[in-house]
Protein backbone atom coordinates (compact mmCIF):
# COMPACT_ATOMS: atom_id res chain seq x y z
CA UNK A 1 0.00 0.00 0.00
CA UNK A 2 2.85 2.40 0.78
CA UNK A 3 2.05 5.98 1.72
CA UNK A 4 -0.51 6.55 -1.07
CA UNK A 5 -3.32 3.99 -0.67
CA UNK A 6 -5.76 5.46 -3.20
CA UNK A 7 -5.68 3.87 -6.70
CA UNK A 8 -7.03 7.09 -8.26
CA UNK A 9 -4.88 9.83 -6.70
CA UNK A 10 -1.67 10.34 -4.69
CA UNK A 11 -3.25 11.34 -1.38
CA UNK A 12 -1.00 10.50 1.56
CA UNK A 13 -2.12 8.46 4.55
CA UNK A 14 -1.87 11.49 6.82
CA UNK A 15 -4.47 13.34 4.74
CA UNK A 16 -7.08 10.59 4.40
CA UNK A 17 -9.29 12.20 7.04
CA UNK A 18 -9.57 15.45 5.04
CA UNK A 19 -12.22 13.99 2.75
CA UNK A 20 -14.69 16.62 1.58
CA UNK A 21 -12.54 19.68 2.30
CA UNK A 22 -11.75 22.13 -0.54
CA UNK A 23 -8.09 21.08 -0.35
CA UNK A 24 -9.06 17.43 -0.72
CA UNK A 25 -11.28 18.13 -3.73
CA UNK A 26 -8.46 20.09 -5.36
CA UNK A 27 -5.87 17.38 -4.69
CA UNK A 28 -8.05 14.72 -6.33
CA UNK A 29 -7.75 16.70 -9.56
CA UNK A 30 -4.17 17.95 -9.33
CA UNK A 31 -2.69 14.71 -7.94
CA UNK A 32 -4.75 12.31 -10.02
CA UNK A 33 -2.91 9.17 -11.10
CA UNK A 34 -1.92 8.89 -14.76
CA UNK A 35 -0.10 6.06 -16.43
CA UNK A 36 2.62 8.29 -17.88
CA UNK A 37 6.06 7.48 -19.22
CA UNK A 38 7.65 8.34 -15.88
CA UNK A 39 5.51 5.74 -14.10
CA UNK A 40 6.37 3.15 -16.72
CA UNK A 41 10.10 3.85 -16.26
CA UNK A 42 9.90 3.46 -12.45
CA UNK A 43 8.18 0.10 -12.79
CA UNK A 44 10.67 -1.02 -15.45
CA UNK A 45 13.63 -0.14 -13.20
CA UNK A 46 12.09 -2.01 -10.26
CA UNK A 47 11.48 -5.07 -12.43
CA UNK A 48 15.06 -4.95 -13.67
CA UNK A 49 16.30 -4.91 -10.06
CA UNK A 50 14.12 -7.92 -9.24
CA UNK A 51 15.49 -9.79 -12.22
CA UNK A 52 19.03 -9.08 -10.96
CA UNK A 53 18.17 -10.86 -7.72
CA UNK A 54 17.21 -8.03 -5.37
CA UNK A 55 14.25 -8.68 -3.05
CA UNK A 56 11.10 -6.60 -2.76
CA UNK A 57 12.30 -5.18 0.57
CA UNK A 58 15.63 -4.06 -0.84
CA UNK A 59 16.39 -0.38 -1.34
CA UNK A 60 16.77 -0.93 -5.09
CA UNK A 61 13.11 -1.97 -5.38
CA UNK A 62 11.35 -0.41 -2.40
CA UNK A 63 12.72 3.09 -2.95
CA UNK A 64 11.38 3.11 -6.52
CA UNK A 65 7.91 1.75 -5.83
CA UNK A 66 7.10 3.17 -2.41
CA UNK A 67 7.30 6.82 -3.43
CA UNK A 68 4.08 6.45 -5.45
CA UNK A 69 2.76 3.17 -3.99
CA UNK A 70 3.34 1.20 -7.19
CA UNK A 71 3.65 -2.52 -7.84
CA UNK A 72 6.21 -4.14 -10.17
CA UNK A 73 3.56 -5.10 -12.71
CA UNK A 74 3.06 -3.54 -16.12
CA UNK A 75 -0.65 -3.26 -16.70
CA UNK A 76 -1.74 -5.13 -19.82
CA UNK A 77 -4.52 -2.68 -20.67
CA UNK A 78 -2.21 0.31 -20.65
CA UNK A 79 0.54 -1.61 -22.46
CA UNK A 80 -1.76 -2.74 -25.26
CA UNK A 81 -4.22 0.15 -25.45
CA UNK A 82 -2.30 3.05 -23.93
CA UNK A 83 -1.44 4.37 -27.37
CA UNK A 84 -5.17 4.80 -27.99
CA UNK A 85 -5.71 6.92 -24.89
CA UNK A 86 -6.68 4.24 -22.35
CA UNK A 87 -5.50 4.88 -18.80
CA UNK A 88 -6.10 1.89 -16.56
CA UNK A 89 -6.26 4.09 -13.45
CA UNK A 90 -9.56 5.49 -14.70
CA UNK A 91 -10.97 1.95 -14.87
CA UNK A 92 -10.82 1.56 -11.08
CA UNK A 93 -14.36 2.42 -9.95
CA UNK A 94 -15.61 2.86 -6.42
CA UNK A 95 -16.93 -0.14 -4.50
CA UNK A 96 -19.99 1.40 -2.88
CA UNK A 97 -21.00 -1.70 -0.95
CA UNK A 98 -17.63 -2.47 0.66
CA UNK A 99 -16.33 1.09 0.97
CA UNK A 100 -19.46 2.77 2.32
CA UNK A 101 -22.05 0.26 3.58
CA UNK A 102 -19.53 -2.26 4.94
CA UNK A 103 -16.83 0.35 5.43
CA UNK A 104 -17.50 3.88 6.63
CA UNK A 105 -21.10 3.37 7.76
CA UNK A 106 -20.25 0.10 9.48
CA UNK A 107 -17.40 1.68 11.46
CA UNK A 108 -19.58 4.64 12.47
CA UNK A 109 -22.55 2.61 13.71
CA UNK A 110 -20.27 0.21 15.57
CA UNK A 111 -18.69 3.14 17.39
CA UNK A 112 -22.09 4.68 18.17
CA UNK A 113 -23.06 1.39 19.80
CA UNK A 114 -19.80 1.49 21.79
CA UNK A 115 -20.78 4.96 23.01
CA UNK A 116 -24.21 3.68 24.09
CA UNK A 117 -22.50 0.77 25.83
CA UNK A 118 -20.24 3.22 27.67
CA UNK A 119 -23.36 5.06 28.92
CA UNK A 120 -24.96 1.88 30.28
CA UNK A 121 -26.71 -1.35 29.37
CA UNK A 122 -30.15 0.27 29.57
CA UNK A 123 -29.35 2.44 26.55
CA UNK A 124 -28.32 -0.60 24.51
CA UNK A 125 -31.53 -2.40 25.49
CA UNK A 126 -33.68 0.59 24.52
CA UNK A 127 -31.80 0.95 21.21
CA UNK A 128 -32.42 -2.71 20.35
CA UNK A 129 -36.06 -2.53 21.44
CA UNK A 130 -36.80 0.44 19.19
CA UNK A 131 -35.16 -1.08 16.14
CA UNK A 132 -36.81 -4.48 16.39
CA UNK A 133 -40.19 -2.74 16.80
CA UNK A 134 -39.73 -0.57 13.71
CA UNK A 135 -42.30 -1.54 11.05
CA UNK A 136 -41.11 -2.98 7.76
CA UNK A 137 -41.72 -1.33 4.42
CA UNK A 138 -42.18 -2.63 0.90
CA UNK A 139 -41.34 -6.15 -0.28
CA UNK A 140 -37.69 -5.76 0.78
CA UNK A 141 -36.98 -2.03 1.15
CA UNK A 142 -36.95 -2.16 4.97
CA UNK A 143 -36.72 -5.67 6.39
CA UNK A 144 -37.47 -6.81 9.91
CA UNK A 145 -34.59 -6.02 12.23
CA UNK A 146 -33.05 -8.71 14.42
CA UNK A 147 -33.82 -8.88 18.13
CA UNK A 148 -30.39 -7.60 19.20
CA UNK A 149 -29.14 -5.28 16.49
CA UNK A 150 -26.33 -3.98 18.71
CA UNK A 151 -24.55 -7.34 18.46
CA UNK A 152 -24.46 -7.19 14.62
CA UNK A 153 -24.63 -10.96 14.32
CA UNK A 154 -24.66 -12.16 10.69
CA UNK A 155 -25.12 -8.60 9.43
CA UNK A 156 -24.87 -8.33 5.66
CA UNK A 157 -24.58 -5.16 3.57
CA UNK A 158 -28.36 -5.06 3.06
CA UNK A 159 -28.85 -5.09 6.85
CA UNK A 160 -26.55 -2.09 7.30
CA UNK A 161 -28.41 -0.33 4.49
CA UNK A 162 -31.79 -0.95 6.15
CA UNK A 163 -30.41 0.12 9.52
CA UNK A 164 -29.23 3.49 8.22
CA UNK A 165 -32.69 4.25 6.81
CA UNK A 166 -34.50 3.77 10.14
CA UNK A 167 -31.94 4.61 12.81
CA UNK A 168 -32.66 8.31 13.43
CA UNK A 169 -35.91 7.80 15.43
CA UNK A 170 -34.21 4.96 17.33
CA UNK A 171 -31.29 7.19 18.40
CA UNK A 172 -33.39 10.14 19.53
CA UNK A 173 -32.91 10.88 23.22
CA UNK A 174 -30.29 8.20 23.91
CA UNK A 175 -27.47 10.76 24.22
CA UNK A 176 -27.25 14.18 25.88
CA UNK A 177 -28.82 16.89 23.71
CA UNK A 178 -25.53 18.41 22.56
CA UNK A 179 -24.13 15.05 21.47
CA UNK A 180 -27.49 13.83 20.20
CA UNK A 181 -27.71 16.80 17.82
CA UNK A 182 -24.32 15.99 16.31
CA UNK A 183 -25.00 12.25 16.01
CA UNK A 184 -28.48 12.70 14.49
CA UNK A 185 -27.07 15.24 12.03
CA UNK A 186 -24.35 12.76 11.08
CA UNK A 187 -26.88 9.97 10.56
CA UNK A 188 -29.06 12.24 8.42
CA UNK A 189 -26.18 13.19 6.10
CA UNK A 190 -25.13 9.54 5.88
CA UNK A 191 -28.67 8.59 4.84
CA UNK A 192 -28.68 11.30 2.16
CA UNK A 193 -25.31 10.07 0.87
CA UNK A 194 -26.67 6.51 0.75
CA UNK A 195 -29.72 7.56 -1.25
CA UNK A 196 -27.62 9.52 -3.75
CA UNK A 197 -25.13 6.69 -4.13
CA UNK A 198 -27.93 4.19 -4.77
CA UNK A 199 -29.80 6.30 -7.35
CA UNK A 200 -30.45 4.48 -10.62
CA UNK A 201 -30.94 7.75 -12.50
CA UNK A 202 -28.64 10.74 -12.12
CA UNK A 203 -28.68 14.23 -13.57
CA UNK A 204 -26.19 17.10 -13.43
CA UNK A 205 -28.25 18.54 -10.58
CA UNK A 206 -28.14 15.37 -8.46
CA UNK A 207 -24.40 14.96 -9.05
CA UNK A 208 -23.76 18.56 -8.03
CA UNK A 209 -25.90 18.02 -4.92
CA UNK A 210 -23.98 14.81 -4.17
CA UNK A 211 -20.72 16.78 -4.16
CA UNK A 212 -22.21 19.24 -1.68
CA UNK A 213 -23.33 16.35 0.54
CA UNK A 214 -19.81 14.88 0.45
CA UNK A 215 -18.45 18.13 1.86
CA UNK A 216 -21.09 18.11 4.61
CA UNK A 217 -20.40 14.46 5.37
CA UNK A 218 -16.69 15.08 5.86
CA UNK A 219 -17.44 17.98 8.22
CA UNK A 220 -19.95 16.10 10.40
CA UNK A 221 -17.78 12.97 10.63
CA UNK A 222 -14.81 15.04 11.80
CA UNK A 223 -17.09 16.88 14.25
CA UNK A 224 -18.28 13.52 15.58
CA UNK A 225 -14.67 12.37 15.98
CA UNK A 226 -13.45 15.56 17.67
CA UNK A 227 -16.44 16.67 19.79
CA UNK A 228 -18.35 13.49 20.71
CA UNK A 229 -16.01 10.50 20.73
CA UNK A 230 -13.46 11.83 23.28
CA UNK A 231 -16.23 12.19 25.90
CA UNK A 232 -16.86 8.45 26.19
CA UNK A 233 -14.45 5.67 27.28
CA UNK A 234 -15.35 3.32 24.44
CA UNK A 235 -14.17 -0.26 24.41
CA UNK A 236 -14.39 -3.25 22.12
CA UNK A 237 -17.60 -5.19 22.21
CA UNK A 238 -17.48 -8.66 23.74
CA UNK A 239 -17.69 -10.23 20.28
CA UNK A 240 -14.81 -8.08 18.99
CA UNK A 241 -12.65 -9.04 21.97
CA UNK A 242 -13.41 -12.73 21.50
CA UNK A 243 -12.64 -12.53 17.79
CA UNK A 244 -9.30 -10.85 18.53
CA UNK A 245 -8.51 -13.55 21.09
CA UNK A 246 -9.24 -16.28 18.54
CA UNK A 247 -6.96 -14.61 16.02
CA UNK A 248 -4.24 -14.33 18.64
CA UNK A 249 -4.61 -17.99 19.61
CA UNK A 250 -3.91 -18.96 16.02
CA UNK A 251 -0.58 -17.13 15.98
CA UNK A 252 2.53 -18.96 17.09
CA UNK A 253 3.96 -17.67 20.34
CA UNK A 254 1.07 -15.32 21.13
CA UNK A 255 -1.24 -15.60 24.11
CA UNK A 256 -4.95 -15.07 23.69
CA UNK A 257 -6.47 -12.23 25.71
CA UNK A 258 -10.24 -11.71 25.62
CA UNK A 259 -10.17 -8.59 27.81
CA UNK A 260 -12.06 -5.72 26.20
CA UNK A 261 -9.55 -3.10 25.10
CA UNK A 262 -10.01 0.58 24.45
CA UNK A 263 -11.28 1.27 20.94
CA UNK A 264 -10.96 4.68 19.29
CA UNK A 265 -12.83 5.98 16.26
CA UNK A 266 -10.56 6.10 13.22
CA UNK A 267 -11.16 7.77 9.85
CA UNK A 268 -7.57 7.63 8.61
CA UNK A 269 -8.62 4.92 6.18
CA UNK A 270 -8.78 4.56 2.42
CA UNK A 271 -12.50 3.72 2.61
CA UNK A 272 -13.29 7.09 4.16
CA UNK A 273 -11.27 8.84 1.45
CA UNK A 274 -12.90 6.77 -1.34
CA UNK A 275 -16.45 7.97 -0.67
CA UNK A 276 -15.43 11.32 -2.16
CA UNK A 277 -14.95 9.75 -5.60
CA UNK A 278 -18.62 8.83 -6.11
CA UNK A 279 -19.78 11.69 -8.39
CA UNK A 280 -16.69 11.55 -10.63
CA UNK A 281 -17.08 7.78 -11.05
CA UNK A 282 -20.76 8.11 -11.96
CA UNK A 283 -19.92 10.77 -14.55
CA UNK A 284 -17.51 8.34 -16.23
CA UNK A 285 -19.28 4.99 -15.89
CA UNK A 286 -22.91 5.65 -15.00
CA UNK A 287 -24.87 4.77 -11.88
CA UNK A 288 -23.36 2.44 -9.31
CA UNK A 289 -25.93 -0.33 -9.80
CA UNK A 290 -24.21 -1.13 -13.13
CA UNK A 291 -20.88 -2.15 -11.59
CA UNK A 292 -21.57 -2.74 -7.91
CA UNK A 293 -19.94 -5.76 -6.28
CA UNK A 294 -23.45 -6.49 -5.01
CA UNK A 295 -24.06 -8.14 -8.40
CA UNK A 296 -21.29 -10.67 -7.86
CA UNK A 297 -22.23 -11.23 -4.23
CA UNK A 298 -25.72 -12.28 -5.30
CA UNK A 299 -24.22 -15.02 -7.46
CA UNK A 300 -23.07 -16.74 -4.26
CA UNK A 301 -26.67 -17.86 -3.82
CA UNK A 302 -26.42 -20.13 -6.85
CA UNK A 303 -23.83 -22.64 -5.58
CA UNK A 304 -25.27 -22.41 -2.07
CA UNK A 305 -28.66 -23.50 -3.42
CA UNK A 306 -27.04 -26.75 -4.59
CA UNK A 307 -26.14 -27.77 -1.03
CA UNK A 308 -29.58 -29.29 -0.41
CA UNK A 309 -28.99 -31.72 -3.28
CA UNK A 310 -25.74 -33.09 -1.81
CA UNK A 311 -25.03 -35.64 0.92
CA UNK A 312 -24.60 -32.75 3.41
CA UNK A 313 -21.39 -34.12 4.87
CA UNK A 314 -17.65 -33.82 4.27
CA UNK A 315 -18.18 -34.47 0.54
CA UNK A 316 -20.65 -31.61 0.09
CA UNK A 317 -18.11 -29.32 -1.55
CA UNK A 318 -17.38 -31.91 -4.19
CA UNK A 319 -21.11 -32.49 -4.69
CA UNK A 320 -21.82 -28.78 -5.19
CA UNK A 321 -18.98 -28.58 -7.71
CA UNK A 322 -20.33 -31.56 -9.68
CA UNK A 323 -23.86 -30.12 -9.80
CA UNK A 324 -22.53 -26.78 -11.01
CA UNK A 325 -20.40 -28.49 -13.67
CA UNK A 326 -23.38 -30.52 -14.92
CA UNK A 327 -25.53 -27.40 -15.24
CA UNK A 328 -22.82 -25.58 -17.19
CA UNK A 329 -22.38 -28.59 -19.48
CA UNK A 330 -26.12 -28.77 -20.17
CA UNK A 331 -26.14 -25.08 -21.08
CA UNK A 332 -23.21 -25.56 -23.48
CA UNK A 333 -24.89 -28.65 -24.92
CA UNK A 334 -28.10 -26.71 -25.59
CA UNK A 335 -26.29 -23.81 -27.26
CA UNK A 336 -24.24 -26.18 -29.42
CA UNK A 337 -27.13 -28.24 -30.75
CA UNK A 338 -29.47 -25.27 -31.16
CA UNK A 339 -27.00 -23.86 -33.68
CA UNK A 340 -26.66 -27.21 -35.49
CA UNK A 341 -30.24 -28.46 -35.68
CA UNK A 342 -32.39 -27.07 -38.51
CA UNK A 343 -34.89 -24.33 -37.74
CA UNK A 344 -37.76 -26.51 -38.94
CA UNK A 345 -36.89 -29.06 -36.25
CA UNK A 346 -36.83 -26.53 -33.40
CA UNK A 347 -39.89 -24.51 -34.47
CA UNK A 348 -42.50 -26.97 -33.08
CA UNK A 349 -40.70 -27.00 -29.72
CA UNK A 350 -40.70 -23.21 -29.49
CA UNK A 351 -44.38 -23.01 -30.39
CA UNK A 352 -45.56 -25.36 -27.63
CA UNK A 353 -48.19 -23.42 -25.65
CA UNK A 354 -47.22 -22.79 -22.05
CA UNK A 355 -49.84 -23.00 -19.34
CA UNK A 356 -48.93 -19.54 -18.13
CA UNK A 357 -51.97 -17.36 -17.45
CA UNK A 358 -52.06 -13.70 -18.32
CA UNK A 359 -50.81 -11.38 -15.62
CA UNK A 360 -53.78 -10.91 -13.26
CA UNK A 361 -52.21 -7.65 -12.06
CA UNK A 362 -51.35 -5.61 -15.19
CA UNK A 363 -48.98 -2.81 -14.26
CA UNK A 364 -50.92 -0.39 -16.45
CA UNK A 365 -53.70 -0.42 -13.85
CA UNK A 366 -53.33 1.97 -10.95
CA UNK A 367 -54.28 -0.58 -8.31
CA UNK A 368 -55.69 -4.03 -7.80
CA UNK A 369 -58.23 -5.16 -5.20
CA UNK A 370 -59.45 -8.77 -5.50
CA UNK A 371 -62.78 -9.45 -7.19
CA UNK A 372 -63.74 -12.02 -4.58
CA UNK A 373 -67.01 -11.58 -2.67
CA UNK A 374 -66.47 -14.44 -0.24
CA UNK A 375 -66.14 -12.13 2.75
CA UNK A 376 -68.92 -9.62 3.30
CA UNK A 377 -70.63 -7.67 6.06
CA UNK A 378 -74.23 -6.55 6.33
CA UNK A 379 -73.75 -2.91 7.24
CA UNK A 380 -76.61 -2.59 9.76
CA UNK A 381 -75.66 -5.77 11.64
CA UNK A 382 -71.97 -4.88 11.66
CA UNK A 383 -72.65 -1.39 13.03
CA UNK A 384 -74.99 -2.81 15.67
CA UNK A 385 -72.23 -5.14 16.88
CA UNK A 386 -69.85 -2.21 17.40
CA UNK A 387 -72.22 0.49 18.56
CA UNK A 388 -72.37 -0.84 22.09
CA UNK A 389 -68.58 -0.78 22.33
CA UNK A 390 -68.40 3.02 21.91
CA UNK A 391 -66.03 2.71 18.97
CA UNK A 392 -65.43 6.18 17.53
CA UNK A 393 -64.53 4.66 14.17
CA UNK A 394 -68.17 3.93 13.37
CA UNK A 395 -69.48 7.41 14.17
CA UNK A 396 -71.53 8.54 11.16
CA UNK A 397 -70.15 5.58 9.20
CA UNK A 398 -73.14 5.34 6.84
CA UNK A 399 -73.29 9.11 6.34
CA UNK A 400 -69.60 9.25 5.44
CA UNK A 401 -70.02 6.29 3.10
CA UNK A 402 -72.99 7.84 1.30
CA UNK A 403 -71.26 11.21 0.94
CA UNK A 404 -68.17 9.53 -0.47
CA UNK A 405 -70.19 7.48 -2.96
CA UNK A 406 -71.95 10.62 -4.24
CA UNK A 407 -68.57 12.12 -5.12
CA UNK A 408 -67.77 8.90 -6.99
CA UNK A 409 -71.13 8.76 -8.81
CA UNK A 410 -70.74 12.23 -10.28
CA UNK A 411 -66.92 12.45 -10.30
CA UNK A 412 -67.17 15.50 -8.12
CA UNK A 413 -63.80 16.73 -6.92
CA UNK A 414 -63.84 18.38 -3.54
CA UNK A 415 -61.12 19.87 -1.41
CA UNK A 416 -62.92 18.60 1.68
CA UNK A 417 -61.76 15.44 3.40
CA UNK A 418 -65.34 14.85 4.59
CA UNK A 419 -67.83 16.04 1.94
CA UNK A 420 -71.31 16.82 3.25
CA UNK A 421 -74.30 16.52 0.92
CA UNK A 422 -77.95 17.24 1.76
CA UNK A 423 -80.09 14.45 3.16
CA UNK A 424 -82.31 14.32 0.04
CA UNK A 425 -79.27 13.46 -2.10
CA UNK A 426 -77.96 10.86 0.34
CA UNK A 427 -81.36 9.13 0.36
CA UNK A 428 -80.92 8.38 -3.34
CA UNK A 429 -77.82 6.26 -2.66
CA UNK A 430 -78.60 2.54 -2.75
CA UNK A 431 -76.09 -0.13 -1.68
CA UNK A 432 -76.92 -3.51 -3.16
CA UNK A 433 -77.92 -6.08 -0.52
CA UNK A 434 -76.79 -3.50 2.09
CA UNK A 435 -73.42 -5.24 2.05
CA UNK A 436 -69.79 -4.21 1.99
CA UNK A 437 -67.24 -6.77 0.80
CA UNK A 438 -63.99 -6.93 2.74
CA UNK A 439 -60.44 -7.66 1.59
CA UNK A 440 -57.11 -8.06 3.35
CA UNK A 441 -54.68 -6.60 0.83
CA UNK A 442 -54.35 -4.25 -2.10
CA UNK A 443 -51.67 -3.66 -4.73
CA UNK A 444 -50.68 -0.15 -5.81
CA UNK A 445 -48.84 0.37 -9.08
CA UNK A 446 -46.81 3.53 -9.53
CA UNK A 447 -44.01 4.93 -11.69
CA UNK A 448 -40.75 5.40 -9.80
CA UNK A 449 -38.28 8.23 -10.37
CA UNK A 450 -36.28 6.11 -12.83
CA UNK A 451 -39.39 5.65 -15.03
CA UNK A 452 -39.90 2.03 -13.98
CA UNK A 453 -43.23 0.64 -12.86
CA UNK A 454 -43.13 -0.52 -9.26
CA UNK A 455 -45.52 -2.13 -6.81
CA UNK A 456 -46.52 -1.33 -3.24
CA UNK A 457 -48.70 -3.61 -1.16
CA UNK A 458 -51.15 -2.53 1.54
CA UNK A 459 -51.66 -5.52 3.81
CA UNK A 460 -53.94 -5.34 6.83
CA UNK A 461 -52.47 -8.53 8.27
CA UNK A 462 -48.80 -7.51 8.22
CA UNK A 463 -49.14 -3.91 9.41
CA UNK A 464 -48.22 -2.33 6.06
CA UNK A 465 -51.14 0.09 6.19
CA UNK A 466 -49.79 3.61 5.71
CA UNK A 467 -50.48 5.42 2.44
CA UNK A 468 -49.73 8.73 0.77
CA UNK A 469 -52.42 10.70 -1.08
CA UNK A 470 -52.51 14.08 -2.77
CA UNK A 471 -53.50 16.99 -0.57
CA UNK A 472 -55.53 20.04 -1.52
CA UNK A 473 -53.52 22.18 0.87
CA UNK A 474 -51.20 24.81 -0.56
CA UNK A 475 -48.73 24.41 2.30
CA UNK A 476 -48.35 20.63 2.03
CA UNK A 477 -48.85 18.64 -1.20
CA UNK A 478 -49.35 15.30 0.57
CA UNK A 479 -51.64 13.79 3.17
CA UNK A 480 -51.01 10.62 5.14
CA UNK A 481 -53.45 7.99 6.32
CA UNK A 482 -53.51 4.51 7.84
CA UNK A 483 -55.73 2.03 6.03
CA UNK A 484 -57.97 0.14 8.46
CA UNK A 485 -60.34 -1.38 5.90
CA UNK A 486 -60.23 -2.41 2.24
CA UNK A 487 -63.74 -2.75 0.82
CA UNK A 488 -65.82 -2.76 -2.30
CA UNK A 489 -69.53 -2.13 -2.63
CA UNK A 490 -72.06 -2.35 -5.43
CA UNK A 491 -73.96 0.89 -5.32
CA UNK A 492 -76.30 2.96 -7.47
CA UNK A 493 -77.83 6.41 -7.41
CA UNK A 494 -81.46 7.22 -8.07
CA UNK A 495 -82.43 3.82 -9.58
CA UNK A 496 -79.43 3.59 -11.90
CA UNK A 497 -77.74 0.19 -12.45
CA UNK A 498 -75.37 -0.70 -9.59
CA UNK A 499 -71.64 -0.36 -10.18
CA UNK A 500 -68.73 -1.74 -8.18
CA UNK A 501 -66.77 0.87 -6.22
CA UNK A 502 -63.51 0.13 -4.42
CA UNK A 503 -63.10 1.89 -1.08
CA UNK A 504 -60.40 2.43 1.51
CA UNK A 505 -61.49 3.16 5.05
CA UNK A 506 -58.66 5.14 6.61
CA UNK A 507 -57.56 6.80 9.78
CA UNK A 508 -56.21 10.23 8.95
CA UNK A 509 -52.97 11.72 10.21
CA UNK A 510 -52.23 15.44 10.24
CA UNK A 511 -49.01 17.40 10.17
CA UNK A 512 -47.58 18.38 13.50
CA UNK A 513 -44.54 20.36 14.50
CA UNK A 514 -41.60 18.04 15.23
CA UNK A 515 -41.26 17.70 19.00
CA UNK A 516 -37.62 18.83 18.89
CA UNK A 517 -36.48 19.58 15.34
CA UNK A 518 -32.93 20.35 16.50
CA UNK A 519 -32.30 16.79 17.67
CA UNK A 520 -34.13 14.99 14.84
CA UNK A 521 -32.48 16.66 11.83
CA UNK A 522 -35.79 18.36 11.04
CA UNK A 523 -37.65 15.18 10.13
CA UNK A 524 -41.27 15.81 9.19
CA UNK A 525 -43.75 14.48 11.72
CA UNK A 526 -47.44 13.58 11.73
CA UNK A 527 -49.92 12.57 14.39
CA UNK A 528 -53.48 11.29 14.46
CA UNK A 529 -56.12 13.98 14.07
CA UNK A 530 -57.01 15.29 17.55
CA UNK A 531 -60.72 15.18 16.64
CA UNK A 532 -61.96 11.64 17.18
CA UNK A 533 -64.67 11.78 14.52
CA UNK A 534 -62.37 13.43 11.98
CA UNK A 535 -59.86 10.60 12.26
CA UNK A 536 -61.84 8.14 10.12
CA UNK A 537 -63.05 8.53 6.56
CA UNK A 538 -63.14 7.03 3.07
CA UNK A 539 -60.62 7.35 0.24
CA UNK A 540 -60.86 6.47 -3.42
CA UNK A 541 -58.02 3.95 -4.07
CA UNK A 542 -57.28 5.64 -7.39
CA UNK A 543 -56.13 8.76 -5.51
CA UNK A 544 -53.44 6.87 -3.58
CA UNK A 545 -49.97 7.81 -4.78
CA UNK A 546 -48.13 4.98 -3.04
CA UNK A 547 -47.42 3.47 0.37
CA UNK A 548 -45.58 5.47 3.00
CA UNK A 549 -43.29 4.48 5.84
CA UNK A 550 -44.15 6.04 9.19
CA UNK A 551 -41.84 5.32 12.12
CA UNK A 552 -43.03 6.00 15.68
CA UNK A 553 -41.25 8.77 17.54
CA UNK A 554 -40.13 6.37 20.26
CA UNK A 555 -38.62 9.03 22.50
CA UNK A 556 -41.94 10.89 22.92
CA UNK A 557 -43.96 7.86 23.90
CA UNK A 558 -47.52 6.73 23.26
CA UNK A 559 -50.68 8.81 23.24
CA UNK A 560 -51.82 9.48 26.86
CA UNK A 561 -54.90 7.63 28.06
CA UNK A 562 -56.97 10.81 28.28
CA UNK A 563 -56.27 11.64 24.62
CA UNK A 564 -56.53 8.11 23.23
CA UNK A 565 -59.59 7.31 21.13
CA UNK A 566 -61.58 4.17 21.78
CA UNK A 567 -61.33 2.01 18.69
CA UNK A 568 -60.19 -1.40 17.65
CA UNK A 569 -59.48 -0.20 14.11
CA UNK A 570 -55.81 0.66 14.37
CA UNK A 571 -52.47 -0.78 13.34
CA UNK A 572 -52.27 -4.56 13.05
CA UNK A 573 -48.56 -4.78 13.86
CA UNK A 574 -49.24 -4.82 17.59
CA UNK A 575 -47.94 -1.30 18.32
CA UNK A 576 -50.01 1.22 20.31
CA UNK A 577 -50.80 4.72 19.07
CA UNK A 578 -47.78 7.00 19.46
CA UNK A 579 -47.83 10.75 19.95
CA UNK A 580 -45.89 11.37 16.75
CA UNK A 581 -44.71 9.49 13.70
CA UNK A 582 -41.73 10.47 11.59
CA UNK A 583 -42.13 10.35 7.82
CA UNK A 584 -39.36 8.18 6.44
CA UNK A 585 -38.81 9.60 2.95
Can you give a write-up of this model?
By secondary structure, the chain is α+β, with helices and mostly antiparallel strands. It folds into 3 domains: 13-91, no CATH class; 96-298; 367-583, no CATH class. It contains 19 helices and 14 strands. The strands form 2 sheets. Strands 2, 3, 4, 7, 8, 9, 10, 11, 12, 13 and 14 form an 11-stranded antiparallel sheet that branches. A 3-stranded antiparallel sheet has the order 1-5-6, with no helix packed on it. Strand 7 and strand 8 (478-493) form a beta hairpin. Helix 7 runs antiparallel to helix 8. It is globular. The two termini are 40 Å apart. The mean pLDDT is 88.
Q: Report, as a whole number of angstroms, the end-to-end distance.
A: 40 Å
Work out the strand percent.
Answer: 5-15%
Q: pLDDT below 50 for ≥5 consecutive residues: which ranges?
A: none
Give the biggest beta sheet: 11 strands, antiparallel
pLDDT averaged over residues = 88
Shape: globular
Helix content: 25-40%
Class by helix and strand content? Answer: alpha+beta
Number of helices: 19
DSSP strand count: 14
Region (Disordered): 235-257
